[in-house]
């Protein structure tokens, strides 16, 4: 199995980058041979769509699980569409500690994005107390699981956005299924 850990550097001793789409590096850890590859994130300075670009890169690397601090809705949807599981809430620890925590089952998969769109750019959707652009300086309290609690207004906004995304995804799936049915009928 391949894990992806968001990192501020190229070694297992570097600290985790709390952002997914705009992290500096991805550490791809192969649990079968305990080897890793450091991959520079080309989306780190993208004008837009960094989360989607980063998620596509990770999917192309054959990753099955992502360990990160936060993930926005576009990246989360892209990752889960590719069958990749996501663990959020990991801050203030080294990449090596994240891997060890995963091996021991200390982390839980998340059921949705942990921040709003554009979180890593400081452009909105910041988590409570968050500063965007990694301004937390890695001062987290160690291994945390799940998304940070949100005030009611942010929770309501996120819930509304998720419902809208869900509806759009349902419509997209219906369109895809209709096309599959049409192509299947042409063959037969």
Please tell me about this protein's structure:
- The protein is of the alpha/beta class.
- It has two domains: 2-147, 2-Layer Sandwich (Nucleotidyltransferase, domain 5), CATH 3.30.420.130; 151-188.
- 35% of the residues lie in helices and 15% in strands.
- It is built from four helices and seven strands; from the N terminus they run E-E-E-H-E-H-E-E-H-E-H.
- It has a five-stranded mixed β-sheet with strand order 3-2-1-4-5, sandwiched between helices. Strands 6-7 form a two-stranded antiparallel ribbon.
- Helix 1 (50-60) runs parallel beside helix 2.
- The protein is globular and about 55 Å long.
- The model is unreliable at 123-151 (pLDDT under 50).
Q: Notable features of this structure?
A:
2 domains; 35% helix; 188 residues; single chain; 7 strands; alpha/beta; Nucleotidyltransferase, domain 5; two-stranded antiparallel sheet; five-stranded mixed β-sheet; globular
